[in-house]
Each structure stands twice: as structure tokens, then as C-alpha cells.
Write a structure and sequence with these properties.
This is SIMPL domain-containing protein. By secondary structure, the chain is an alpha+beta fold. It folds into two domains: 87 residues, 2-Layer Sandwich (Translation Initiation Factor IF3); 103 residues, Alpha-Beta Plaits (2-Layer Sandwich). 26% of the residues lie in helices and 43% in strands. It is built from three helices and nine strands. The strands form two sheets. Strands 1, 2, 3, 8 and 9 form a five-stranded antiparallel β-sheet that branches. The longest helix has 26 residues. The protein is elongated, with a radius of gyration of 26 Å.
Length: 223
């Protein structure tokens, strides 16, 4: 895993000589490589007869699922996230005319071989999928990266406290009075967009990196 780091000063500190307290904050961001992707792949069918639209959707969905399995996606990593039956209407001259039904099924697919995301999407489209609604790149163990960022955020806060205590002629107690965590582990999606794509196009997907940020506030005693 390639890890890059960037430090950001969180512009917040407070000294209180009468109470012997210095309050500082620390912030640190790690940039890590994702190792999994979550892709939403959909099948949309239309027909005047609901049963026809449903049967066509089922057949195409089965083909798409088989395509995913053939590409090494585990069955337990394929989940139906949406199944909708939507009546369709056409408006002309102020009149509403029923035109048929739209059946929509969307699979939430977890891809653990991130280098295969493009091929998996291409093959799903060739098998009958006609909608890719979302691609999100994640790290399977974000807690580990977040804990690294948290430790570095604390070091930044401690160095701030040392600087402030020295500038204000106080001696810093290295044992903190309190530590408050201001952030939580999170993954930033690389792509979040709905679009249609032709099956004969080639999908090139670049995952980029994920920013993991930790922010804390620390109180130190001085004397």
C-alpha cells in the first residue's frame, strides 16, 4: 500500500496562564490507496405489458450476475439495492397517456480485485446492463490508516503546546489533561454520478487516492 501524508495546521489554540492550561488542536491527513470498489450496476427495461418488462429484466439480470461471477466476484458480494416498477406516462396537449412500465433493478457489487473494475463494468454492459449509477473506491481497513493519522495529529498538537508554553514562559506537563476527538474515520468517494454507457465502449477507471483525516483538541497543564 502506498501512503502519502500531508499536514495541515488547524488554526485553533488557547492559553490560560492563571489556570495553567494550554488548549491546542492537531490535524493530519494521510493519502492512501484504495483496495476495493463498490459499483452500482443497473438493468432498466420498458414495455407496455408489466409481465414482459419484468421477464426481460429478470433474464438480463441473470446474465449480468453470471458475468460478475465469471469475473471472480463472489455471489455474497452482489446485492440487489433497488428494484422498482414505475408506470410511464406521456403528456400531450395537457393530457396524460399511459405508455407502459419501466422495471429497474440495481445491483450493489463489491469488487475486491480493484484492477478488474473496468473489465467487470464492460462485461456487465455487454451482458445486458444499461446503467452504471455509482463507483466508490474504498479502503477495506480504514481504521488502521485513521489511527496513524490520529497519532500524527496528536504529535502536531503536542508540538504546538511546547511552542506556546515556551513562548509564555511556562513549563508544560507532557501528560495531557484531556483529549477530544473531532473527526471520525471516513472514505471519500472517487466518483458519484449516474450515467448510461454503450456496451462497446471501453471503461478506463482511475481510483486515485483516499484522504483520511484526523482532528483532535488537547488540553495540557502548565506550571
Amino acid at each position: 500500500m502506498r501512503v502519502g501524508a500531508a499536514m495541515h495546521s488547524y488554526p485553533y489554540y488557547r492559553t490560560n496562564q492563571s489556570n495553567g492550561i494550554i488548549t491546542v488542536s492537531g490535524e493530519h491527513t494521510l493519502y492512501v490507496d484504495p483496495d476495493q470498489a463498490i459499483v452500482s450496476i443497473g438493468i432498466v427495461t420498458n414495455d407496455k405489458e408489466l409481465e414482459v418488462a419484468q421477464n426481460e429484466n429478470k433474464q438480463l439480470s441473470n446474465r449480468v450476475v453470471q458475468s460478475l461471477l465469471n469475473n471472480g466476484v463472489r455471489r455474497q458480494d452482489i446485492q440487489t439495492s433497488t428494484y422498482q416498477v414505475l408506470p410511464q406516462y406521456q403528456f400531450e396537449d395537457g393530457k396524460q397517456t399511459f405508455t407502459g412500465y419501466e422495471v429497474r433493478q440495481v445491483f450493489r457489487v463489491t469488487v475486491k480485485s480493484i484492477e478488474k473494475v473496468g473489465k467487470i463494468i464492460d462485461d456487465a454492459l455487454k451482458s445486458g446492463a444499461n446503467r452504471v449509477e455509482n463507483i466508490q473506491f474504498i479502503q477495506s481497513n480504514p481504521i488502521e490508516s485513521y489511527q496513524q493519522a490520529l497519532a500524527l495529529a496528536y504529535q502536531e498538537a503536542y508540538q504546538k503546546a511546547l511552542t506556546l508554553s515556551g513562548q509564555s514562559n511556562q513549563q508544560l506537563n507532557p501528560q495531557p489533561k484531556s483529549i477530544t476527538e473531532q473527526s471520525r474515520p471516513s472514505a471519500v468517494p472517487f466518483m458519484n454520478t449516474a450515467y448510461l454507457k454503450a456496451a462497446d465502449e471501453s471503461t478506463a477507471v482511475q481510483p486515485g487516492q483516499i484522504a483520511v483525516t484526523a482532528i483532535i483538541t488537547v488540553e495540557f497543564r502548565t506550571h
